[in-house]
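Q: Convert this sequence to structure tokens.
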Amino acid sequence: MTDKKENILLSALQLFASDGFNATSTSKVAKQAGVSEGLIFRHFENKEGLLKAILAMGESKIKDLFAEIVLETEPKLVIRKTISLPFQVKEEDYDFWRLQFKLKWELKNYVSQKMDPLEMALSNAFKKLQKPKPELESKKLLLLVDGISSALLKGDLKNKEELHQFLLNKYEV
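A:
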């Protein structure tokens, strides 16, 4: 990938994450990237193509994070790793994750099935541990992780290590 193309992607990611996809124009991306708007269209066709390229780059991050959990056979480790997910995200990846959260609300065609394998793995873990209503328990935990992730990305979570340990203890994992 050329430096200019990478610069376009990074600028778009930052702007989409901070200002939102709908509020960010290709001219704004071009200005921040230090390139012509025509170069964006040449490489990505349109703004949607630019978003698609950013999301494709990030899909491997999502797959890597989830694979370690989904392939785990020990139920307590599935739960532990799920709880630990938001606490392990590197700050340099925050823009990508901010964008994921913004897209949930901004775009009607946002794919929410990304969480299905994780939800299934959690549900199976709670079943193996003979917890009542394992499907609801897995949904509850994923909503909790989602809320924690949101608070971390917004900078609203000051006691993250304490909360992380509290949850691991609460779920006895």
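Residues 107 and 124 are 31 Å apart (CA to CA).
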